[in-house]
Write a structure and sequence with these properties.
heterodimer; A: mainly alpha; Helix Hairpins; B: Four Helix Bundle (Hemerythrin (Met), subunit A); 2 domains; 73% helix; 0% strand
Chain lengths: 100, 168
C-alpha cells in the first residue's frame, strides 16, 4: 500500500487545492492558510523522495521549509494586523496599492 | 491494518485540505488546517521521518496555527465570506486546478503504481533513516551552513514582525 506514487499524488492534490484557494478566497488570512497548505504539499513530496532514495537530504530540506514557513507566517500576520490597524477593509481585491 | 490506516489518513488529509478552502469562517479553515497538518505528521511517520513528524506537530500544528488562531481572535472577522466572489474567477481557478490534478495523476500513476517501499531503510553509515541520529548528523555535518542561514532567516523575520507591529 505504501506506494510512492500515492504519496506524490496526495502531494499534488494538496498543492492544487491550496493554489485554487489562493486564487479564489479574498480574506488575506485564509489566503495565508492556503499558502501553508501548498508549503506542506511540497514538504510531503520532499519526504517521499527522501524515502525513495533513502537519504536524509529531503528531510533536511523539509526542516528548512518548515522554518521558512514559520518566518513567513510571522511576517505575514504582522502585515495583516498592520493593515487591520490602518482601518482598511480585509479584502485581497481591495488592497491593490502595489498594483503596477 | 497498515493499509486501512494509510487509507484513513490519506482521505483525512485530502478532505481537510478542501475544508481549508471551502469553509466560510476563517476559524473553521484554521481548524481544518490543523487536522491537515496532523494527518501529514502521521504520513511523515509512515515515510520514516519520525523527527520531522514531531517537528510538524510542534512547529506547524502548535506554534504556527496558534498564531493564526490568535490573529483570528484579535481581528474577529465576523463577515461570513465564502469562496464566492466573481463566479467566473472561481470557475477558471477550479478548471485550472482540475487540469493540474489530472496531469499529476497521469504523470504519477501512468506507469503503474511502482514498487512499494522496502522495509529495509537504513542509510549509509548505519543509522536509521529519519532517526534523530541521522537527522543530527545530516544537519550539523553536511548542512551546517544552511542551518546557520535558517537561523538568520528566523531572526530577520522576528525583527521584521516587531518593526511592523510597533506602536506609533
Amino acid at each position: 500500500m505504501l506506494h510512492p506514487s500515492l504519496f506524490l499524488l496526495l502531494s499534488a492534490w494538496l498543492f492544487v487545492v491550496g493554489a485554487v484557494g489562493v486564487l479564489v478566497r479574498r480574506n488575506p488570512l485564509v489566503v495565508f492558510m492556503c499558502v501553508e497548505l501548498m508549503l506542506n504539499a511540497g514538504n510531503l513530496a520532499l519526504m517521499t523522495f527522501a524515502r525513495i532514495h533513502r537519504n536524509m537530504e529531503g528531510q533536511v530540506f523539509t526542516l528548512v521549509v518548515i522554518a521558512v514557513a514559520a518566518s513567513e507566517v510571522v511576517v505575514g500576520l504582522a502585515l495583516i494586523v498592520a493593515i487591520y490597524k490602518s482601518g482598511r477593509k480585509m479584502d485581497i481585491d481591495e488592497l491593490s496599492e502595489l498594483r503596477g | 491494518m497498515l493499509t486501512f490506516f494509510f487509507a484513513l489518513v490519506f482521505a483525512l488529509s485530502a478532505t481537510s485540505a478542501v475544508g481549508v478552502v471551502a469553509s466560510r469562517r476563517p476559524l473553521y479553515a484554521a481548524l481544518s488546517l490543523v487536522v491537515n497538518m496532523l494527518s501529514l505528521a502521521l504520513l511523515f511517520i509512515l515515510l520514516s521521518g519520525q523527527f520531522l513528524a514531531a517537528a510538524q506537530v510542534i512547529v506547524y500544528a502548535g506554534a504556527v496555527m496558534v498564531l493564526f488562531v490568535f490573529v483570528i481572535a484579535l481581528l474577529n472577522p465576523l463577515r461570513d465570506e465564502g469562496p464566492g466572489g466573481d463566479p467566473r474567477q472561481t470557475l477558471i481557478a477550479v478548471l485550472i486546478g482540475a487540469g493540474m490534478v489530472g496531469a499529476a495523476a497521469v504523470a504519477f500513476l501512468g506507469g503503474g503504481l511502482g514498487s512499494e517501499f522496502s522495509s529495509q531503510d537504513s542509510i549509509a553509515g548505519g543509522a536509521q533513516l529519519g532517526s534523530i541520529q541521522a537527522m543530527g548528523s545530516a544537519l550539523y555535518r553536511d548542512f551546517a551552513l544552511p542551518v546557520e542561514a535558517t537561523a538568520l532567516v528566523l531572526v530577520v523575520a522576528a525583527v521584521g514582525a516587531v518593526y511592523l507591529s510597533r506602536g506609533k
